Amino acid sequence: MTFITRLAALLLLALLMSCGKQAELPRLPSTATVLAFGDSLTFGTGATPETSYPAVLAGLIGRKVENAGIPGNTTADGVARFATVLDETQPGLVILCLGGNDFLRRLDEAETVGNLRKMLDEARSRKLPVVLIATPKPGFGVDVPDFYAELAKEYSVPLEAEALEDILTQGALKSDAIHPNAEGYQQMAEAVAALLKDAGAI
């Protein structure tokens, strides 16, 4: 291997490592509450309450996880209730998973991004760490919009961008076209738990 080839390989490795590195999170005390905020994917539609991803996540990370998912919520609905839910739950960490209903209703993407930004701004104003979960956009397949990664970079928050895309492309992990089943939610919870550990929260 020539010097140039070796240098190119090292640069590529460094680039790949930097691309895969998540933003860091503060350590989450064992008494802290995690707020899972979202729509039906957070609520657990397609499974029982005990097998929703927040319920499974609580067992995996040893922290209380408050399920604040409301089926049918758009990002605008999320903005309308976000501050109130934060006041009520006083979380130490927020997991934000919204956007799917905006896509299903074909709402303007700029509006979706603006609403997510409002919630991220609200959390930032309270110095609350956030994890962002990307929701795939339905079409001929499922595809995660680029704006989730852009927001994660802008706000320096960890992003889980692969779990739902992977789950919703596997029939054995779905209860219907747009919702996981219990096994799918288990995998979603495991992905979020792994992210929290990698980011230093757990």
From TrEMBL:
CDD domains per UniProt: Lysophospholipase_L1_like
Signal peptide: 1-23
Domain SGNH hydrolase-type esterase span(s) in chain numbering: 36-186
Alphabetized Pfam families for the sequence: Lipase_GDSL_2
Alphabetical UniProt keywords: Signal
UniProt superkingdom: Bacteria
Protein name, entry field: Arylesterase
